[in-house]
Design a protein that fits this description.
The complex is a heterodimer of chains A (291) and B (357). Chain A is mostly helical and 291 residues long. Chain A has a single domain (50-275), classed as MetI-like (MetI-like fold, Orthogonal Bundle). In chain A, 75% of the residues lie in helices and 1% in strands. A two-stranded antiparallel ribbon of chain A has the order 1-2. The longest helix of chain A has 38 residues, at 250-287. With 357 residues, chain B is an alpha+beta fold. Chain B folds into two domains: 6-227, Rossmann fold (3-Layer(aba) Sandwich), CATH 3.40.50.300; 240-356, RNA polymerase II/Efflux pump adaptor protein, barrel-sandwich hybrid domain (OB fold (Dihydrolipoamide Acetyltransferase, E2P), Beta Barrel). Helix content of chain B is 25%, strand content 34%. Chain B is built from nine helices and 20 strands. In chain B, the strands form four sheets. In chain B, strands 6-7-8-3-9-10 form a six-stranded mixed sheet, with helices on both faces. Chain B has a five-stranded antiparallel sheet with strand order 13-12-11-14-20. In chain B, α5 (170-187) links the parallel β7 (158-162) and β8. In chain B, 41% of the residues are buried. Classes of the chains: A mainly alpha (291), B alpha+beta (357). The A-B interface holds A 177, 179-180, 182-190, 193, 197-198, 201-202, 282, 285-286, 288-289 and B 54-56, 75-78, 82-83, 85, 87, 89-93, 102-103, 106-107, 133-134, 136-139, 150-151, 154.
Chain lengths: 291, 357
């Protein structure tokens, strides 16, 4: 046991080196970039400034941040409702079928993100599958405009991140002792009350983990809004992309990226703190059982 | 004593899961205020029967009458019956008080009444000092009492207990057996307990039912079942029994070696049929009087000292298994027996029970 610490740090070294080289260093470079000025003909002028961060709070850009948060929040809400219901159904299925259903739930992950998102264009296109289906049922009016709407962006985000929610919610649901629900019924609770007072509170950690995942991945996403939103519903991801590749304003792009990372870190930290407090209670509780 | 009132009548109830028949036409009457035990080996249908009483399973056939009303199709949250789960099923995110209050909140009782009833039951079950703890902060015995308090506070007509002592260690189990009986007496609620532990039901139950393969074998007081088992299975399952296989005669059983064990032969057993004569270890005497009708000699193979008494394993020509004989510590002191000794065993015809093999 004596040299366990050094041995475990040795085992961690490759992962740490990988993270440092490919995560921390680039992030530090981008952070540094944010403190410089944009050159007159693009490029970077190496004089220190805080202007870029001031610009982040400009109503125009702050509005895009809020818009991103709203779209990501809506996608999170929809994904949690659908994902929780699916996880509940899988956990309630016979034991031997559960791995099969889970396999199908994560099956989309086996194909490329971009291809999956293009598939939605085929579906939502003015002359796409949904419109054709409506025609087949006798619909003759104007084809509905579904693509390049905020709804399309939300649908794309929900579709892409739903498996995370299903997996995150399935874990606590499948571990739940079914006798707890029976005990609640036995004590006089209806099925709805049992869900609200027993099942839901005990599976909140899974919901939180899944929700944070969807929110963090959605708010920084730029592929889905670019393809399904048609650039009309710019999210922060698109803005950062534009600054680097179109506007050629790397310092401002870097400041925006840092602001985005800060938001993500705040959300992740809040979730970690909450989860830590929940488990901290448990371990503290375990300590004085003998008392 | 007045005629005891029937609280729960189980009337030809059957339940099958697909092709498996879990409960097969069981009829039972459970009386007001009694401590009733459903006893049987695992898979005998006792838990399924209990779950039908609680409302978690619906019988395929038959009726379950509580106070004369058929409750077979009433959902669990609408019947005046509560179940104490084998796993206790305490809500882990709620304190002891919240767990116990839950059932009364579901009845939408006024808050002061909930408070006073919860306080009272926490006092009865000696849980008041732990009211604010979470279940994970409790010992096994404390958890068991919370589960009990949570069910009792509802003042059900019938309290069902699924292997209530199964998760406790042996010493605590003994104490809780008496504690459960005391509580049952104090609250005046009918208890139906499911157990596979025959000793437990002998100690606790006023009456008990022995089940096997979904069928009811015998229902009576522990004393009556112990002394007059209905068949060979019950005789073997309840307590310890010595069996002598052989053929039925008019006044007993003729063992394989030709020895005759005298006893009352049931009318259903025709002479010559395969039969077993049986006798309890505590009915066998070492060095019997001359007039004792049933006797044999054997060699002591092992001695087990158990404090109150001494258990001997005696190899006899009567049966392939050694005879178990219980001698009081007192008698053993007066005439010591050692392993390897030749001993004479004897027992009365009145203590012999004869069953079809």
């Amino acid at each position: 046991m004596k040299y366990a610490p050094s041995r475990s740090s040795l085992l961690m070294a490759p992962a740490l080196a990988w993270l440092a080289a490919l995560m921390v260093v680039p992030c530090a470079l981008v952070l540094a970039l944010a403190f410089f000025r944009r050159g007159i003909y693009g490029g970077i002028e190496y004089t220190f400034t805080l202007e870029n961060f001031g610009l982040v709070f400009d109503p125009l850009y702050a509005g895009i941040f809020l818009n991103s948060a709203r779209i990501a929040g809506t996608a999170t809400l929809v994904a949690v409702v659908i994902g929780y219901a699916a996880a509940y159904a899988i956990a309630a299925a016979p034991r031997r079928w559960q791995p099969v259903f889970l396999f199908f739930a994560v099956l989309p992950f086996w194909s490329n993100y971009l291809i999956r998102t293009y598939a939605w264009i085929v579906l939502l296109n003015r002359e796409g599958l949904i419109t054709q289906l409506l025609r087949w049922f006798g619909y003759t009016g104007e084809p509905p405009s579904m693509l390049y709407t905020e709804g399309a962006v939300i649908a794309g985000l929900v579709y892409n991140y739903l498996p995370f929610v299903i997996l995150a919610c399935y874990a606590p649901l499948s571990r739940l002792n079914p006798e707890l629900a029976e005990a609640s019924r036995d004590l006089g609770a209806s099925a709805a009350t049992t869900f609200r007072r027993v099942i839901l509170p005990l599976t909140v950690p899974g919901i939180a983990a899944g929700a944070v995942f969807v929110f963090v991945l959605s708010i920084g996403n730029f592929v889905t809004p670019a393809l399904l939103g048609g650039g009309r519903f710019q999210m922060i991801g698109n803005l950062v992309y534009d600054q680097f590749l179109t506007a050629n304003d790397w310092p401002f792009g870097a400041a925006l990226a840092m602001a985005l990372i800060a938001i993500m870190l705040l959300v992740l930290m809040a979730q970690a703190l909450a989860a830590n407090r929940a488990s901290g209670h448990a371990s503290q509780a375990g300590g004085d059982t003998d008392g | 004593m007045s005629e005891p009132r029937t609280l729960l009548a189980i009337d030809k109830v059957s339940k099958n899961f697909g092709r498996v028949t879990a409960v097969d036409g069981i009829s039972l009457d459970i009386r007001e205020n009694e401590f009733f035990a459903l006893l049987g080996p695992s898979g005998c249908g006792k838990t399924t029967l209990l779950r039908m009483l609680a409302g978690f399973e619906t019988p395929n056939d038959g009726r379950i009458l509580l106070d004369g009303r058929d409750i077979a199709k009433i959902p669990p949250n609408k019947r005046p019956v509560n179940l104490m789960f084998q796993s206790y099923a305490l809500f882990p995110h709620m304190s002891v008080r919240a767990n116990v209050s839950y059932g009364l909140e579901m009845e939408r009782l006024p808050a002061p009444e909930i408070r006073s009833r919860v306080d009272a039951i926490l006092a009865t079950t000696e849980l008041a000092p732990f009211a604010d703890r979470k279940p994970e902060q409790l010992s096994g015995g404390q958890k068991q009492r919370v589960a009990l308090a949570r069910a009792l506070v509802k003042r059900p007509r019938l309290l069902l207990l699924d292997e209530p002592l199964g998760a406790l260690d042996k010493k605590l189990r003994g104490a809780m057996q008496l504690e459960l009986k005391r509580l049952q007496h104090e609250v005046g609620i009918t208890f139906v307990i499911v157990t596979h532990d025959q000793e437990e039901s002998l100690v606790m139950a006023d009456r008990m039912a022995v089940l096997k393969d979904g069928k009811l074998l015998q229902c009576d007081t522990p004393h009556a079942i112990y002394e007059h088992p209905a068949d060979r299975f019950v005789a073997d399952f309840i307590g310890v029994m010595n069996f002598v296989p052989g053929k039925a005669a008019t006044d007993g059983v003729v063992a394989a070696n030709g020895a005759r064990i005298s006893g009352k032969v049931p009318a259903t057993l025709s002479p010559g049929a395969s039969a077993v004569a049986s006798v309890r270890p505590e009915r066998i005497r070492l060095f019997p009087e001359a007039q004792t009708v049933n006797r044999t000699t054997g060699t002591v193979e092992a001695l087990a000292y158990q404090g109150l008494d001494l258990q001997l394993h005696v190899r006899t020509p009567l049966s392939p298994k050694p005879f178990l004989v219980r001698v009081t510590a007192d008698a053993a002191d007066r005439r010591p027996v050692l392993s390897g000794d030749r001993v004479e065993l004897g027992w009365d015809a009145a203590d012999v029970r004869i069953f079809a093999e």
